[in-house]
Amino acid sequence: MNPLHKFAASAGVQVNKVGSGIADLMGMGSGEEGARRLEQTNDALAADSPALNMTGRMAGGVLMAAPLALGAEAAIPAGLSMMGRGALATGLGAVEGGVEKPFSDETRVGNTFMGAAAGMASEPLSMALQAGLKRIPFGALADFAVGKSNSVKESIERSMRDAGMDYSALKPETKKILESINRADDVDVAIKEAMETEYGFKLTAGEQSGDFAQLSAESSAARQSQAAGESMRDFKIEQNQAITEAGDRMALEAGGEIRGNEQVGTVLKDALGDAKSQDKKNYQALYTAAKEMAQTNDIEMPLDQSVIADAFYNVARESVSTHEGLLKDIGRELARLDVLDPEEFANDIPFSIPDLDTKALGVDNSEDFMKFLNSKYSASDPAGNRILAMIKDAVESNADDVIARSLDTVDGVAAREFLDVAKAARAANRSYRGLWENKDVLQSLTGLKNQSTEPLKTASDVVKVIMQKPENARKVIAELQSRGSEQAVADLRTYVLKDIMEGSINPNIPTGDLGFFSGAKLTNGIKKNKASLEAILTPEQMSQLKAFEVGVGKATNKPAGAVNYSNTASKIADMLMSGLGRTPVLAPAAGLRESEQIKLLIKP
């Protein structure tokens, strides 16, 4: 017979004992033989497990005495003192003891006196027992009763998983608590302590377990007594402050400084701007070096004029009717660079070409021509920008071809050194354009409006742009980390977490000196930005945020019906509990008075 069966059998003994006693008083008893068999059964159970026998018989007494307790409720004045309640409980205890069927070593008179004595002690005893019961790890006890053999580690991981926590991502201090557990009976108590350590704030018994009946009892107890209500309100004010402080700590633990939206935007723009500026300086320095080497060593490496000229004439014939002015400017520059023949150019397209100082367009000065084309860019003219892009592509492609051909044919050390530098300059330029001039988040955050010093995005826009798409966040963070700008990344993470926390506070619901920290608003904020948050935060930070969300939800989101605003059901339940509390055998199950209940429910 397992422990649960022993407990149930002992409860059955007490039910039969009271029932037989009532039957005897009514002249309908089963006689001494039935009493002897009942006593033998009780003796066997008591010898095998005294504790289970005692608690089982108490449970049986609770069941049989419930009608007596309900009837007594009408006779108990509201607000009766501790002494008055004790006197009534003494009388009820005498009645309850007197009706029991006496065993061989008992008498009805003796049971009556024992019941009266138990009734006298029931009020203080109930308080002590309730306090003890609150500390029993019922989850572990239940596993023991039904013979489960799960290991301590499995119990811990299951409990943490049920609470929405990733065990591997817990704080070190939380893991320390859990790793210290070496007995199954300690699991429930330690899990509660670990959760409060991980969350950074305390929960009531009902909030921690999520048990609907427990939550309802806490709500009822708080509403039925001014003292109890004040105790619960004080606890909730302290809890709300602890939740707010825990959210702030989580933001700071991301490693950044607490900054406003514009401040953190400035930090990010500066970090990205510095990286862009450094890349530009690098490729420009290479071009400058190549140009100086060409001039010093009288190296000429012109581009293929026909390739560039053909590219220009092809796009010009298509667009002369719409972009005559732009084409005229580009044609004059190409004529000056000896790519277009001024006379042929004037015949093919009737532009007037003034006398120009020419300098052949070559590998060494192709970047100067690129700058000229960039100066013609206009954000409001996509078709004109397409013309510029086509000519740029032709120049860049031909420059690469000329360098590649020359590496195999050029003579002399100086010429080879020039080609190496020119090749590096071309590669650096392509890398720069691919990274910073592509139409993506980096160009948006660091670019300028056409022919001005006004940025495309202001500092106050930066975080919004990053949060718009997870790929934006990933690209910005990857670029910053590759440049060693870890502090800027930390500042972004701290700001995002702080913003989520501040957005969860409802200032219209004062809770002490602070606004109410809403679990529902926190969940909505995380859900709305989930993809971007996962891209910005580390996996550990995201796991901690989710665990915090679970804890705040336990503290602030009550299931429908758990809070009884009408208070009618609370008063009915209170009548039942107060009546049961005055019956000796029922005292442990009856519950404390409201203020004592609340003290136990919120006790650390």
Can you put this structure into words, describing what you see?
The structure is a single chain. This protein is rod-shaped. It has 29 helices and two strands. About 8% of the residues have low confidence. It has a two-stranded antiparallel sheet with strand order 1-2. Helix 1 packs across helix 3, helix 17 runs antiparallel to helix 18 and helix 22 packs parallel to helix 25. Helices cover 71% and strands 2% of the residues. The protein has 604 residues and is mainly α. A hairpin with a 2-residue loop joins strand 1 and strand 2.
Number of strands: 2
Task: State the distance separating the first and last CA atoms.
Answer: 37 Å
Q: Number of helical runs?
A: 29
Widest sheet: strand order?
1-2
Assign a percent range to the helix content. Answer: over 70%
What is the molecular shape? rod-shaped
Computed structural class: mainly alpha
**Low-confidence regions:** 133-150, 352-356, 569-577, 579-594
Q: What composes the largest sheet? A: 2 strands, antiparallel
Strand content: under 5%
Average pLDDT confidence is 79
Radius of gyration, whole Å: 42 Å
Short description:
This protein has 604 residues and is mostly helical. It has 29 helices and 2 strands. The chain is rod-shaped, with a radius of gyration of 42 Å.
Topology (elements, then pairings):
Blueprint: H1 3-25, H2 31-48, H3 50-73, H4 82-99, H5 108-134, H6 138-145, H7 152-162, H8 172-179, H9 187-199, H10 205-209, H11 212-223, H12 226-252, H13 261-296, H14 305-319, H15 324-336, H16 342-348, H17 366-374, H18 382-409, H19 413-436, H20 441-446, H21 462-468, H22 470-482, H23 486-503, E1 505-511, E2 514-517, H24 519-528, H25 530-536, H26 539-556, H27 568-580, H28 587-590, H29 594-601
Antiparallel strand pairs: 1-2
Helix pairs in contact: 1-2, 1-3, 2-3, 3-27, 4-5, 8-9, 9-26, 11-29, 12-23, 12-26, 12-29, 13-19, 13-23, 14-15, 14-18, 17-18, 18-19, 21-22, 22-25, 24-26
